[in-house]
Design goal:
Structural class of chain B: mainly alpha
CATH architecture of chain A: 3-Layer(aba) Sandwich
Shape of chain A: globular
Number of domains of chain A: 1
Number of domains of chain B: 1
Largest sheet of chain A: 6 strands, mixed
Helix content of chain B: over 70%
Distance between the termini of chain B: 36 Å
Strand content of chain B: under 5%
Number of strands of chain A: 10
Largest sheet of chain B: none
CATH superfamily of chain A: P-loop containing nucleotide triphosphate hydrolases
Number of strands of chain B: 0
Number of helices of chain B: 8
Bound molecules: adenosine-5'-diphosphate, magnesium ion
CATH class of chain A: Alpha Beta
Helix content of chain A: 40-55%
Largest interface: A-B, 26 and 21 residues
CATH architecture of chain B: Orthogonal Bundle
Oligomer: heterodimer
Number of helices of chain A: 9
Order of helices and strands of chain B: HHHHHHHH
């Protein structure tokens, strides 16, 4: 069985179905890119995976263990192995950059402070923010904030990293500095699911691309298969749209 | 109609007036604390209470924010004795300003309760925070950040608002100004000194508040006015 196995996953917001019968498999070290039109359920899928929205049906199996989203202990365990980076960064505005990165290992995992601080400084160095340790998020550019958010996610040492359109809120000149870090993570074989429409980037780092439409996965394959030879009409229409947009 | 400014004749009132200013600050602080307590009860009822609690709170807030504060104190001082509730002027004024502030502070506090940092909560939850941690590290700091400037401004307005006490013979800054004026008739000199003392009080209060705010939020909080 794959490292992450999603089978027949469904979810609803209130009454309206948002995900229906999503099945996907991600191997360790793989980078799965989720693409698809706005509203097709990409963010919702990530939110279900990390336990922000309870699934209605179906199953998620991580490292051979089925995740029971109704059990708090199972959720806690999940959040120790899985982290997410949001489109809008979602940094804690009342904490410094360093505290944003330290809060989870220090307060949630209750690890000793010297060790946590050393790791946090190293992570912030890795994302190029050693000079901003004591700044507040509101004093940073969007690209810098998103790099803090990546460092914060990495601080829990996740085995699976979820990225939800992490560059789409950024000014064009700031996109690259964030993509560079994700590229570095891919080279380090971090397992990732990344919602992204940066076509060139997806081609470069994704091992697999899944196209979503109306709450379900309509096509899955290598970047070349999806972008150069889409099989379904829906996929062809969407791909030609994002190619034109770039 | 020549008027010769003769500050020399009123300088000896300055210590007396400063003593009044100290009383004004004490009244403001007392009323502010009481107002926060009443405002908190009302805000909780408005934001989270059942229909009855919310209704009572809404009636309270509507009454106290839609009638003049002066009328409210007049009522307490002159009308309540007819119902055999007799308060001296200081107590009547403090009670009146407190009840009035409770109405305004309820609205301010409610706005804080209703401003929920949804994105930050999502981040906290996915990092594994418990409800208590979310409150402590995310929700309460956010509320303080939202509320502190508005509450600080309200406090400064209350310092100035205590001048109403003078009307009822309380020896606050305004009351002592009225007394000194009755004795010396140097209105322009006295009132200009009194105005300067009020300005100094609000400047001190503003500096103190932003100092506390900086310590509280570890960043600059700006106050309007
Ligand atoms: N909080 C919410 N409440 C109700 N409906 C929502 C909410 N968030 C998203 N939706 C709906 O769910 C569908 C999928 O949304 P989303 O997962 O955000 O799509 P994508 O990320 O692919 O753009 C959309 O139809 C959207 O309107
Ligand atoms: Mg989305």
């Amino acid at each position: 069985m794959a490292f992450l196995q999603i089978a027949d996953l469904s979810a609803t917001y209130g009454r309206s179905p948002v995900l229906s019968g999503v099945s996907l498999a991600v191997e360790k070290g793989e980078v799965l890119s989720l693409i698809g039109p706005s509203g097709s359920g990409k963010s919702t899928l990530l939110r279900v995976l990390i336990g922000l929205l309870p699934p209605q049906a179906g199953s998620v199996t991580l490292a051979g263990q089925r995740v029971d989203y109704a059990v708090p202990a199972a959720l806690r365990a999940l959040r120790g192995r899985c982290a997410i980076v949001f489109q809008q960064y979602n940094l804690f505005q009342n904490m410094t950059v360093l505290n944003n990165v330290m809060v989870a290992p220090l307060k949630i995992k209750r690890r000793p402070r010297p060790e946590v601080e050393e790791e946090a400084r190293a992570l912030l160095g890795k994302v190029g923010l050693s000079a901003k340790l004591h700044a507040h998020p509101s004093e940073l550019s969007g690209g810098q904030q998103q790099r803090v958010a990546i460092a914060r996610a990495l601080a829990v040492k996740p085995e699976l990293l979820l990225l939800d359109e992490v560059t789409s809120a950024l000014d064009p000149e700031l996109v690259q500095e964030v993509l560079d870090i994700i590229r570095l993570l891919a080279q380090e074989h971090m397992t990732m699911i990344a919602v992204s429409h940066e076509m060139g980037f997806v081609r470069e780092i994704a091992t697999k691309v899944a196209l979503m439409s109306e709450g379900t996965v309509v096509e899955i394959g290598t970047p070349a298969e999806i972008f150069d030879a889409p099989r379904s009409e829906r996929a062809r229409a969407f791909i030609s749209k994002i190619i034109r947009a770039h | 109609m020549g008027y010769t400014l003769q500050y020399g004749q009123v300088y000896h009132y300055i210590p007396y007036l400063l003593g009044g200013a100290w009383i004004s600050l004490q009244i403001a602080f007392l009323c502010f604390c009481g107002g926060i307590a009443i405002g908190m009860l009302n805000a909780v009822a408005l934001a989270f209470g059942n229909r009855l609690a919310a209704g009572v709170a809404r009636a309270y807030v509507t009454f106290f924010t839609n009638t003049p504060g002066l009328v409210q104190i007049y009522f307490i001082y002159y009308a309540l004795p007819d119902l055999h509730i007799v308060l001296d002027s200081v107590h009547a004024v403090v009670l009146g300003i407190t009840l009035n502030a409770g109405g305004y502070l309820a609205l301010i506090l409610r706005s804080g309760f209703l401003s929920v940092p949804v994105n930050e909560i999502d981040a906290g939850v996915t990092l594994g925070m418990t409800r208590l941690m979310l409150l402590r590290y995310v929700i309460v700091p956010h509320m303080i950040g939202v509320l502190y400037p508005a509450i600080g401004n309200k406090f400064i307005l209350m310092v100035l608002g205590t001048a109403v006490a003078g009307v009822f013979g309380v020896e606050d800054l305004m009351g002592r100004t009225i007394n000194a004026n009755a004795e010396s008739f140097r209105s322009i000199e006295l009132l200009s000194i009194t105005a300067a003392i009020y300005v100094a009080m609000t400047i001190c209060a503003t500096i103190a508040l932003s100092g506390v705010g900086m310590a509280l939020l570890r960043r600059r909080v700006r106050f309007a006015g």
